[in-house]
Amino acid sequence: MQDKKSCVIYCRQATTQQNNNSINHQEITLKKIAKERGFKIKKIIKDIGTTTQIKKLIEWIRGKKVDYLLITGIDRICRNKSDFSQIFDLMERNKIKKIVTLDKDFDSKKDKASFLIFGAFCYLEKETLSRRIRIGHQIKQS
């Protein structure tokens, strides 16, 4: 019997004010993908309202070699340029063979450029939304 490929699951929910349906749904969905593809889940890391756990994810992967990182979308790991670039670096050093999302798999050998482009767009979208929210708050206070 062939060894199962190892994976780590990362789930992130933007705020603690949300109920836990979002993060629970992410976990259930990603576990299902892992099972369907025959992946062995090594670790599940959840971030709720912070980005502290993504740093633990990065450190955990650095200390190991994992075949797959499962996330629902690239936007889950693009909140911070530094974190995203560290994950990209892990791909480049072959510490992660593939990043699996609900929409696309990013292979560390073939898809690094598209991973960077998707990540850049997600980061830009997050920055634009944050700026609009700040402007909205300023307008309400005046």
Summary keywords:
alpha/beta, five-stranded mixed sheet, Rossmann fold, 4 helices, 142 residues, single chain
Topology of helices and strands:
Blueprint: E1 5-13, H1 21-37, E2 39-48, H2 52-63, E3 66-70, H3 81-92, E4 96-100, E5 105-107, H4 112-141
Parallel strand pairs: 1-2, 1-3, 3-4
Antiparallel strand pairs: 4-5
Description:
With 142 residues, this protein is an alpha/beta fold. It has a single domain (5-141), classed as Rossmann fold (3-Layer(aba) Sandwich). It contains 4 helices and 5 strands, in the order βαβαβαββα. It has helices at 21-37, 52-63, 81-92, 112-141, and strands at 5-13, 39-48, 66-70, 96-100, 105-107.
Cα separation of the termini = 67 Å
* CATH superfamily membership: Resolvase, N-terminal catalytic domain
> Over all CA atoms, what is the radius of gyration?
16 Å
CATH topology heading: Rossmann fold
- The average pLDDT score comes to 86
Helix content: 40-55%
* Tally of helical segments: 4
Number of strands: 5
The largest pleated sheet is described as:
5 strands, mixed
Give the strand order, joined by hyphens, for the main sheet. 2-1-3-4-5
Give helix and strand order, one letter per element, not per position: EHEHEHEEH
Could you tell me the strand content as a percent range?
A: 15-25%
How many individual domains?
1
What is the CATH architecture descriptor?
Answer: 3-Layer(aba) Sandwich
Shape: globular
